[in-house]
Every structure is written in structure tokens, then in C-alpha cells.
Amino acid sequence: MNNLLITGANGFFGNICTQYFTSKNFNVYGLIKKHGKFKFKPIIHDLSTENSFTFPSEIDFCIHAAGISPNLDWTIGDYLLNNSLSTLNLLKLLNKTKCKKIVYISAVSIYGEINSDTIDEKTPIINPSSYGLSKYFSEK
Asked: What string of pLDDT tens digits covers the 140 residues of the chain?
């Protein structure tokens, strides 16, 4: 698998991934919302909108790091649109490619109030924020 798509490629985690995988000679496509100078092949697209856009069919692997981060100015609607619906739209687009594996970058925020020293898939979800809910819905 040499053809990698990284969503949110110009964000914090996405940028780290693009730097690492380009240094390892992967053929990196970076999904971003705006133009710029990058060391990867940029794909300009907003995943929160569903249209006739398609990815290159040679995508083998995807790291999904796109989304909006916690911010007091965002509403639950903003989070659902930019995190959950965007993930659904990405999966629809990737279904038309050779993509075999997807890594979804979630957040500890899905658990809300954490009452233990260890967090794993069995940790109870207690009162998550709107952001946490949107990341949880995206996982599902």
C-alpha cells in the first residue's frame, strides 16, 4: 500500500502524518479545504458538502484526521456537520476507491467525565460534550 490519503492534512495531526509518510516515500494525497504549498498532492474539497467530487481511485489507505476541534463558538450542528457528516461523506467517497484500511483519529472527549485512571473501549461514556458526541457518532 503506497497511495495514502490524509484528511485534514494541514491540521496539527494531519500535518505530522503527511511529513512522516512523505519522508518514507509514500504517495501522499492530502485533503484540505484551501490552497497552499505542500509536499503532498493536495485535494481541495470540503467533506461537509456532498457533491459529485471523487477521489483518485488508487487510494489504498486513509488516515482521517479532518474535523473541527473543541471551541466555545461552535454549536452541536457545527460539530455534527464538520465531524460526523464529513466522516460519512468520506466513507462514501472512499467506497469508490481501492482503499483497504482507514484509521480514524478520534478524541478522548467521547468519554466525557472520566472517573478512572485507565481509558479503553469499556470506559463508560458520561456526559460528553457536543464535540465528544460528534466524534463518537463518527466512530459509529
From this structure: 589 999 999 999 999 999 999 999 999 999 998 877 778 888 888 898 876 677 788 999 999 999 998 988 999 999 999 999 999 999 999 998 989 999 999 999 999 999 999 999 899 999 999 999 999 999 99
* Measured distance CA(56)–CA(5) in Å, rounded: 10
In terms of phi and psi (left: phi > 0; alpha: psi -120 to 50; beta: otherwise), the region of 8 is left
The 3-class SS string of the chain reads: CCEEEEECCCCHHHHHHHHHHHHCCCEEEEEECCCCCCCCEEEECCCCCCCCCCCCCCCCEEEECCCCCCCCCCCHHHHHHHHHHHHHHHHHHHCCCCCCEEEECCCHHHHECCCCCCCCCCCCCECCCHHHHHHHHHHC
In terms of Cα–Cα distance, which of 11, 75, 76, 85 is closest to 48? 85
Which residues sit opposite 27 in a β-bridge? 3
